[in-house]
Write a structure and sequence with these properties.
mainly alpha, globular
């Protein structure tokens, strides 16, 4: 008997199109108050951005249950068993440290190459802080809150990943790795448009900001896809 949890031999394009429209449409709907208000300066920015990150999950659940309807829906959405447990926990703990090191390393390289200057006195940060809070206190609080921030970021990131790395990766699998990575990377980048066009990430409020984001999502999506393929092999 055929394993009905495996991707269909053909891409369910109708479900993919509906998924993309739902995810992008809901992203614009959720962030509409920012466009009607103060944009990135709005006090609603953080909660609305977090809510936007769950729109791919909602879209994925809708099309998986209403259109694709595979026999094993959880597996189709990429929810595989948490094994091996020890290695997965180690990755969860070490991954934030890795990206923190990458960010710090990129900053130091940029300073070394003369692309930017380092404000070691943290005077730029201090000018943005409320009275009574020094830059050194802010740095200490930020590092103390890092574990909580990782938990919050992981929860909101799951809202994206169930859609892009779960449903869409499975649905596009018949295309082969590179074409699948290209389609999902572009869709993932365009989905960010509601906040990118407000100036988030790249400080660009035109199509160039979306192009930069698509470049980033293509790169990251491809790298994650390679990792997923090797893990399943």
């Amino acid at each position: 008997m055929a394993d009905t949890t495996l991707p269909a031999p053909r891409v369910p394009w109708a479900a993919v199109v509906v998924y993309a429209l739902l995810a992008c449409g809901m992203a614009w709907l959720v962030t509409l108050p920012l466009w009607l208000g103060d944009g990135l300066a709005s006090p609603l920015f953080l909660p609305l951005a977090a809510a936007m990150m769950f729109t791919p999950t909602v879209a994925a659940l809708c099309v998986t249950f209403a259109m694709v309807r595979p026999a094993r829906k959880a597996r189709y959405l990429g929810l595989v068993p948490f094994r091996p447990v020890g290695r997965k926990i180690a990755l969860f703990l070490l991954w934030p440290v890795f990206w923190l090191a990458v960010g710090l390393g990129a900053f130091l390289v940029a300073v070394w190459l003369g692309w930017t200057t380092a404000d070691w006195s943290l005077s730029g940060i201090e000018r943005m802080l409320p009275p009574g809070l020094t830059a050194s206190m802010y740095v200490l609080i930020s590092f103390a809150a890092l574990p909580l921030n990782v938990v919050i970021a992981s929860a909101t990131a799951f809202g994206e990943e169930l859609g892009w790395r779960g449903f869409l990766t499975t649905a596009l699998a018949p295309l082969g790795f590179w074409r699948s990575a290209l389609v999902s990377g572009v869709l993932w980048g365009v989905w960010h448009a509601p906040i990118i066009l407000l100036g988030y990430n790249y400080l660009r409020t035109d199509g160039s900001g979306i192009a930069w984001m698509c470049g980033f999502t293509l790169l990251v999506g491809g790298a994650v896809g390679v990792r997923q393929s090797s893990a399943r092999a």
